[in-house]
Write a structure and sequence with these properties.
With about 775 residues, the protein is an alpha/beta fold. The chain has 21 helices and 29 strands.
Length: about 775
C-alpha cells in the first residue's frame, strides 16, 4: 500500500509521501478553491458534472470547492432548482467520486461551506444570527448549536465551515454587524472557544464534525466610517488586546483554519501582512493549520489596495506572506505556475502551503471516508431537535429594552384584540439575516404566526379574529399607501404590536450582487428592502423608509404600543424609546424567531437576553462601545457620552437582588489569584435567568486603560425566592494588559472589582495587588 493511503501512518508521514509524488501542476491544484455550485448541473433532480470541472480534475486536480451546496442570489440556486438534503449529499458524493477516480493520485476534495448561523443550503436549520447568539450569554447553548450545525454540514459532505466570525464591532453602521457577537473581546473569546469545540468536536475525522475557519483576521469590525473593508487605523497594543484576543483564544482551542480580512491595518493589507500571518499566528501562537483568503482578496491587492502591479505579483506576495489557499482560485490558478517557472516563487514556499492543505484533509479523514450517507443526511438536516434548539436560542437572545408599567407579559385572556402591524410582522425572509438560503414560507415562523398560535392554543379564546394584521409599509421607500389600512386595523384593537426594523434578505435582481465576492451592492431598486448585511453599510442608525412615521401615526390612537425590532444592527430612535410602552430587540432571530418572540410577549418565556453591543441615543455619539478609554474626551454640546441602552443591559419579568461582593482575600501578589463571590436572589414572582457580569478596573496603570472591562459572566436560572452563590476567580488572566513592551503584564496596585447586571449597574470591591 502507498504510504499516503495507509491510515496507520502519521499525518506528517502521509503528507510528505504524497507531496513527493506530486507535480507542480498538482501542487498548485491543491491551493485553488473554485466555486462549487459551478461544478454540476441539476436538471429536475438529475445531477451531472460539468465538463469544465472534469477537465480541471484531470489536468492537475482541485484542492477545494467553495459553496458546493450554497443557495442564494449569488449562486442562482433557488428553492425550485436547488438540491434537497438528500440530493445535496448525492451531489457531493458524485463530485468526490470523480475527483478520486479520475485524478492521478486520487486526492479527495475539501468541501467548504458557509455556516455562520446554520448551513447555507436548502433544508438546513436557520439559527439566529451571531448578534442574537451573543445576546444569549449562554456559552453552553451556543456550543450545542455549533454541534448541530456541524452534523448538518458534514452529513452532506461539507468538511470545513467559514465560521465563526470573531470581529469586534466598533462601528455598528457596518452592514456585517449582525454576523458578529458584539463589541467585547472577552465575550467573543468565550464564544470563539465554544464554537471551535462544538464544530470540531473531539476529532475532525468523525461524521459529525467540521473544521472551523476563524474570520476575519483581523480588525475588520473597526473599519473607517463603518464601511465594509475600509482601512483600519489601529496601533499594535489595541490590536493585541482587543481584536486579536478572540482569535488567540480560538487558536489555543485548536481551530483548524483561519481567514485573513479584506482590510488594511496601518497601510498593510491583511492578506499580505506577514507580521500577522507569520510572526503572530505561526511563531507566537504556534498555529499549524490552514490559511485561506476571503473571496477576491488577492485580486484586491492589484486592484483596490494597489500594493501589487498585477495578478502575478499579488499571488506571489500572498503565498510568501503565509496564504495557503485562495478562495475562488483565480489568481493562484492563473499565476503560480508562471511564478515558479520564472523564479519568482520558490518551490519550498509552494510546498509548505500544499502540506497544510493535505494535512487538513488527512486530519478530516477524507482519504478514508470521502463519501456520505444520503439517507442519513435526510434524517439529520432540519430535524426536530435542531428546530427546538433554534427556538430556545432565539428566546434566550431576545432583549427586553423597555417595559413601562409592566405592560408585558400579555395574557390571551385579558389582552383583548391584538393588531400586529409592520413590514417585519409576517415577512419570513426578513427575520433570517444574511448568509441564509431561500426558505419556504411554511418553514419560517413569523411574529404573526407566533401570536396567532397563542390565541389558537388558548382555552379562553377561540376566535382567530382576535389577531388582526396589516404590514403598513415596506422597510425602505417612501410609500404610505398601507398607512390607511394599518391605522384602521390598529383602531379596532386594544393592543398594537409593531414589528419593524431592517432586512438583510438578498434579492435575485440583476445588479445587486457583486459577482466576484457574493457581497450585496447598494441598490436603487425601490422593491429591494435590504438595508443591512455584507456590503450594506449605513450613514445613520434610524429606521429606514417611513417606518417611524407609521409608528407615530398608530401611537396617536392611544392604544397600548409594543415595538418589536427585527434587525441586524442597533437602532437609534429616541422617539420610540420615549413613546412605546414596551420594546423588544429581537435582532434576526432565525426560522423559529416568531414563536420565540410570541413566547416572550405572552410570558411563556421570561426574557433573559442581554445586549452585547451598546445602543446609542444618536449616531453622532459613535463610537460608543462601553470599554473605551477613561481619557476618551469630554461630552458633546447636545448630549453626554452614555448610550441609550448600555452593554450587558436587559430587563426581566422578575427581579434579582445582589448581595455585597466578597473577596476571599483583599490582597494578592501578581502571581496569585483570589475569588470574588456574590449571592444573587430571585426576589420576584416568576422563574427567570440572570446574567451575572464581572468587570475589572485597573485604577492606576502605566498605560491608559478602559474604565471597565468584562472579565467573567455566568447565566444562572433561579426560581422565585431562590438564592445562588456565584464565584469568579481573579488572577493574571483577568488583571493583565499589554504593556510597554507589547507583552502581557500584571502591575501591582489597586483594582476595582465590579459585579452586577450590566456595565452601568454594578457593586464594587477593592483588591490590592502586590509585587510577587
Amino acid at each position: 500500500m502507498m504510504i499516503y493511503k495507509d491510515a496507520s501512518k502519521s499525518v506528517a508521514e502521509r503528507v510528505e509521501h504524497l507531496l513527493s509524488l506530486m507535480t507542480i501542476e498538482e501542487k498548485i491544484g491543491q491551493l485553488v478553491q473554485p466555486f462549487g455550485w459551478q461544478t454540476y448541473t441539476n436538471n429536475e433532480g438529475n445531477i451531472t458534472l460539468n465538463e469544465s470541472f472534469k477537465q480541471q480534475v484531470e489536468q492537475g486536480g482541485i484542492g477545494s470547492l467553495y459553496g458546493a451546496l450554497r443557495a442564494d442570489p449569488w449562486t442562482g440556486v433557488t428553492l425550485e432548482n436547488g438540491l434537497s438534503a438528500r440530493e445535496g449529499a448525492e451531489a457531493v458524493n458524485l463530485i468526490q467520486r470523480y475527483a478520486i477516480e479520475h485524478s492521478r493520485l486520487g486526492i479527495p476534495i475539501l468541501i467548504g461551506e458557509e455556516c455562520s448561523h446554520g448551513h447555507m443550503a436548502i433544508d438546513g436549520t436557520v439559527f439566529p444570527v451571531p448578534l442574537l447568539l451573543g445576546s444569549t450569554w449562554n456559552v453552553d447553548l451556543y456550543r450545542e448549536m455549533c454541534r448541530a450545525v456541524a452534523r448538518e454540514t458534514r452529513a452532506q459532505g461539507g468538511a470545513v465551515t467559514y465560521s465563526p466570525v470573531l470581529d469586534v464591532v466598533r462601528d455598528p453602521r457596518w452592514g456585517r454587524t449582525e454576523e458578529c457577537f458584539g463589541e467585547d473581546p472577552y465575550l467573543i473569546g468565550e464564544l470563539a472557544v465554544a464554537s471551535v469545540q462544538g464544530l470540531q468536536g473531539e476529532s475532525l475525522d468523525q461524521e459529525d464534525t467540521v473544521a472551523a475557519t476563524l474570520k476575519h483576521f483581523v480588525g475588520y469590525g473597526s473599519s473607517e466610517g463603518g464601511r465594509n473593508a475600509g482601512p483600519v487605523h489601529m496601533g499594535w497594543r489595541e490590536l493585541l488586546e482587543v481584536d486579536l484576543y478572540p482569535f488567540h483564544k480560538a487558536v489555543e482551542a485548536g481551530a483548524a483554519s483561519i481567514m485573513p480580512a479584506y482590510n488594511e491595518i496601518d497601510g498593510v493589507p491583511c492578506t499580505v501582512n506577514s507580521e500577522l500571518l507569520d510572526r503572530i499566528l505561526r511563531k507566537d501562537w504556534g498555529f499549524e493549520g490552514l490559511v485561506i483568503t476571503d473571496c477576491g482578496a488577492i485580486n484586491m491587492l492589484a486592484s483596490g489596495h494597489d500594493v501589487a502591479s498585477d495578478g502575478l505579483h499579488a499571488s506571489v506576495q500572498a503565498i510568501q506572506a503565509g496564504i495557503d489557499m485562495e478562495m475562488s482560485g483565480e489568481m493562484f490558478g492563473q499565476y503560480l505556475e508562471q511564478a515558479v517557472a520564472e523564479g519568482k516563487l520558490e518551490v519550498q514556499v509552494l510546498d509548505q502551503a500544499v502540506r497544510r492543505v493535505l494535512a487538513l484533509k488527512f486530519r478530516l479523514g477524507l482519504f478514508e471516508q470521502p463519501y456520505v450517507d444520503a439517507d442519513q443526511a435526510a434524517e439529520v438536516i432540519g430535524n426536530e431537535q435542531h428546530i427546538k434548539l433554534a427556538r430556545q436560542l432565539a428566546a434566550e437572545g431576545v432583549v427586553l429594552l423597555k417595559n413601562e408599567a409592566a405592560i408585558l407579559p400579555l395574557s390571551t385572556a385579558t389582552v383583548g384584540r391584538v393588531a400586529v402591524i409592520g413590514p417585519n410582522a409576517d415577512q419570513a425572509y426578513n427575520q433570517l439575516g444574511d448568509y441564509t438560503s431561500p426558505q419556504p414560507k411554511s418553514k419560517v415562523q413569523t411574529v404573526l404566526d407566533g401570536i396567532r398560535s397563542k390565541f389558537m392554543c388558548s382555552e379562553t379564546v377561540q376566535s382567530s379574529e382576535q389577531v388582526l394584521y396589516a404590514p403598513g409599509c415596506r422597510i425602505k421607500g417612501d410609500s404610505r399607501e398601507g398607512f390607511e389600512r394599518a391605522i384602521e386595523v390598529a383602531s379596532k384593537a386594544d393592543t398594537v404590536i409593531m414589528v419593524v426594523g431592517g432586512s438583510s434578505a438578498r434579492d435575485f435582481g440583476e445588479g445587486t450582487i457583486d459577482l466576484k465576492t457574493g457581497a450585496s451592492k447598494v441598490s436603487d431598486n425601490t422593491w429591494n428592502d435590504m438595508e443591512c448585511g455584507e456590503g450594506i453599510d449605513r450613514m445613520t442608525l434610524g429606521l429606514a423608509g417611513v417606518q417611524l412615521e407609521l409608528i407615530q401615526e398608530v401611537q396617536k390612537l392611544g392604544k397600548t404600543l409594543v415595538v418589536v425590532y427585527i434587525n441586524g444592527r442597533p437602532i437609534a430612535e429616541p422617539w420610540v424609546d420615549e413613546h412605546a410602552d414596551a420594546i423588544l430587540e429581537a435582532w434576526y432571530p432565525g426560522q423559529e424567531g416568531g414563536q420565540a418572540i410570541a413566547d416572550i410577549l405572552f410570558g411563556d418565556v421570561n426574557p433573559s437576553g442581554r445586549l452585547t453591543i451598546s445602543i446609542p441615543k444618536h449616531v453622532g455619539q459613535l463610537p460608543v462601545y462601553y470599554n473605551g478609554k477613561r481619557s476618551r474626551g469630554k461630552r458633546y454640546l447636545e448630549e453626554d457620552l452614555q448610550p441609550r441602552y448600555s452593554f450587558g443591559y436587559g430587563l426581566s419579568y422578575t427581579t434579582f437582588e445582589y448581595s455585597e461582593p466578597k473577596l476571599s482575600a483583599n490582597s494578592m501578589t501578581t502571581g496569585e489569584s483570589v475569588t470574588v463571590s456574590v449571592h444573587v436572589t430571585n426576589t420576584g414572582s416568576c422563574a427567570g435567568a440572570e446574567v451575572v457580569q464581572l468587570y475589572i478596573s485597573d485604577v492606576i496603570s502605566s498605560i491608559t486603560r478602559p474604565a471597565k472591562e468584562l472579565k467573567g459572566f455566568v447565566k444562572v436560572n433561579l426560581e422565585p425566592g431562590e438564592t445562588r452563590n456565584i464565584e469568579f476567580s481573579i488572577g493574571a488572566e483577568q488583571l493583565q494588559y499589554i504593556g510597554r513592551e507589547l507583552k502581557p503584564v500584571v502591575e501591582a496596585g489597586q483594582f476595582h472589582i465590579h459585579i452586577g447586571r450590566n456595565v452601568n449597574d454594578t457593586q464594587m470591591v477593592e483588591l490590592t495587588v502586590e509585587e510577587a
